[in-house]
Amino acid sequence: MILSFLHMMPSHPWLENHLLSVLIALPLVSACLLSLIPARATTLVKSLALFASFLTFLLSLLLLKMPETNLEGPALFSHLEVYPWIATWNVFYRLGVDTLAIAMVILSTALFPIALLASWRLDHSVKGFFLLFLLLESAVIGAFVSLDLVLFYVFWEAMLIPMFMLIGIWGGKSRIKTSMKFFIFTLSGSLLLLIGVLILGQIYQTFNVLDLYKALLPLNLQYLLFILFSISFLIKVPAFPVHSWLPDTHTEAPTAASVILAAVLLKLGVYGLLRFCLPLFGAAALAWQTPLLILSAIGIIYGSLLSWVQTDMKRLVAYSSIAHMGTILLGVFSFNEDAISGGIFHMISHGLTTGSLFLLIGMLYERTHTRELSHYGGVATKLPVLATAFLIATFGSIGLPGTNGFVGEFLILSGVFNTTPLFAILGATGVVLGAVYMLRLCQQVFFGAANPTSPAFGHLQSDLSWREGLLILPLLLMIILFGILPSPVLKALEGPVHFVVERVKTIQDFQVKEAS
Amino acid sequence: MSPTLFLGFTEAYWSLFLYWCLPLLVVSVGILSLLLLSVFLKPSHELPVYRVVSSLVLLAAMGITLDRLGGSPNFSTDMIHITKTGLLFSLIVLGASFLTVWIVPVFSSGFKDLNRPELYTLVLLSSLGMSAMTYSTNLLFIFISLELASIGFYLLIAMRQSDFFSNEASLKYFILGSLASAILLFGMAFYYGATGSLNMGAAFDIQANDTRLYLSLSLLMLFSGFSFKLALFPFYFWAPDVYQGSPTVLTGWMASAMKAAGFSVLLFFFMHVAKVLNHADNLLLVSAGLTMLIGNLLALKQSSLKRILACSSIAHAGYALIGVAATVNNHTLMPDGQSAVLFYLLIYMLMTMGAFYVLSFLSASTQIDTNHAGRDDLQLSHLRGLAKRNPWLALMFSIFAFSLAGLPPTAGFMAKYTLLVYAAKQHLYSLVFIAILSSLIGVYYYLRMVSAMYFEEPTGYTTIKVPGSSRLSFYGMLALLAIAILYLGVFPSDLLSLTLNAAAH
Predict the structure, then answer these.
(1) Which of A118, A313, A452, B480 has the fewest beta carbons under 10 Å from its own?
(2) Are A154 and B420 inside 8 Å of each other by CB?
(3) Of all residues in chain A, what percent carry a pLDDT higher than 90?
(4) How far apart (Å, rounded) are the C-alpha atoms in residues A511 and A218?
(5) Helix (H) or strand (E) run with residue A79 in it
(6) What is the pTM of this model?
(7) Check: complex ipTM more than 0.85
(8) Any chain A CB within 8 A of the CB of B497?
(9) Under a CB-based contact definition with an 8 Å cutoff, are residues A316 and A309 in contact?
(10) Which residues of chain B have a CB within 8 Å of the CB of A187?
(11) Which residues of B219-238 are buried (b: 16+ CB within 10 A; e: fewer)?
């Protein structure tokens, strides 16, 4: 239905051919425009930023209109754009998307307007906030769509500065320490990635991902590069044991930044693994499958257990993110088509559910200025709409059938069970624990009796405003829609998933042949 | 029939000399005319006229150098040897000098004792010395040029007579600098002993083993001497003290212009001796690695902004040395490494000048506000809440800080990346790794400055305004520098091929 609607949309050949550049440039140019508006005109600043990000979202929907298949069968990548950038090093401005990238881009562009709308009541340094958000959006989209390693690296690191500023300026009490920790942690990973890019470029004289997809690297090199690349991506995911920046960052970051961090930035780590690590260094990934699966499983159980004992709502959800990302990694490292597409689907659904959880916690916090679980109780009777919304998001998060969380988790676990049953069992404990900690959160906050001595008491007067409802509603709808109707997404993802699995097999076969 | 000679040289020689050395001649004439002008000018007119004349002289020299870069150098004598690389290095020197002359009035509105016409003459004199260093492969010529530059430095650092630290810094620099010069001369004497010539080209002819020993001694001494001038490991101790004491407005100039001149000589020298001496590249590797690490580690604990930037300049010298190492590694010359040094130092000049623009300005305005005992030494705490007191200044400074830290999308990243690419090409992976590690360490103190400006609240300072009438010139040039940094971070291609082209000649 949506697709047929898209086909009716007017198409413009220039826009069609430069769509990805436009998507990158639109937020960037709007940020430049924003800087020219006087800071006092806050409403204008907010509206322009919101308009720009919403327009980006609408344009990104054009990506769903897939081009015709060419003679070689369905092309994996579409919307290719190639321009020379730094010719002396063979570095190109090379963009292109497969359905995986399209899914991620649309997830990002959809969440940015929501995050901006959620920050509508921000009262200090408004202009800087919206400006940095637009810069962040541009960098995020750029990272998802670039098919040149150097270009990817530039976008990948360019995300750090806006995020650093967002946490540092608008964050909570220990924002300075946290923003430093965030920056140094992620930068140390990025720099390893840089070494990897340098080595790869040095040996192959090309940074073109599409060319590298045809190359078969020697095994030793694969091991080295896999370490360099994957540490960087695993820090971003974040996987155990390099996760410690995430809870701090989430706790201190402003709501909108938390939403984007959980829903979009973490996904870049998994995206990097799927885009670069597996298709380029598949043999190394296969050789280390067991340790990687163990790390993912530890992430699931450790994250869940820690989430169980948290008393701060945001921290609780942050640890649950570690558990969910562990589940996704479990799916990715099982090298099974079902599990990987489940993993990608779960990335989308984690973005939607955790995004809405952070938004709703932010709304509660705006009213009460506390996130302590013990300060709450009986919120459901006072704010029934918010409570309902929160429950739907929770159901999505714990994977209740009928919500999107179920689809992803089920696919991952059944896929993993086919290859490594033990890890499927470990992963399934995560699902059980997930229900435990999320329901504990709901029970404590929304039900039971209100605590009259708590600072939150008496501040829960108004239910969701129309603005808050407007921004949470689409997320909740998508949680349910994807739960009932996951097949279009899963079908669209078949291409890239199949490619990754086949590519890993090819690399492995080649290694075996070399060895014999 | 012999051609007519003038002062012992043919007419063709003189015309080539005039053509290629015109930038140096322009600066020399500029210095002489400044000295003469003071006879004719009323004291009240002196400062503006000096400023305009020296700016014009430097601009003219830069323009001519740019023009000469289009041709192919064909002037090479025993004393003067023109190369495109050398011309580009001299362009960096002249550019830094021009930017310095431009900003002096803003700074001296806070520090009145810098309102002296000699300042311009001395800046030009040092620029002449440093530019001349890039024009030659003759050690004697280089030595004289270096001393010319250094004498200007000694005087300029001591320019603020009322400031104890300024005098201390000058004396320290003078005594240690003289020692370094003595070591340099000693090394040159050994070089002469080994090769029978003071020209770098003579090293190619060395065959016998015993002369090779003298040559390596001379290499060690020359490298030590230049290590001092460039603040490389282990001769970097003076840098934080001297930077802290010298007038802020001149610090960035001394850091970036001296680096360009010194690295030009180091590059030429190593390119000439590396084929003969096997261990020359090891010396570079060790020095580069330790300089990067120590520079960045030293900066972590500093609280004075100028000391932080001094340590950062040590670290950056270490990065640039990677390029030298990449040029001469494995006894085969690779011009790419040379281009990386050029590219790096050019961008380093832009971002350092930018950072020091902001600091000079802050220092001057703090001086006007608080009138505190004439110290010209800002602490990290002075940056607190700068984003609220003057958002533009904070934005500009953070662009320069991120660029110095080497983060995309600024030019600093591209510059560092260039060095690493060519180091990787020469399989210097140990250096790549150390460079990455030390820039990770370095990021911390640059972030500390940004964090002080944006994340902390201002303490007791008022809004900062540009003193005097120089608002437009200050902000305009600052914005140009920031735009250049961002532009080169996104589109480095043209500049990169310019430096590659120069290095390939």
Answers:
(1) A452
(2) no
(3) 47
(4) 8
(5) strand A78-86
(6) 0.93
(7) yes
(8) yes
(9) no
(10) 440, 443
(11) bbbbbbbbbbbbbbbebbeb
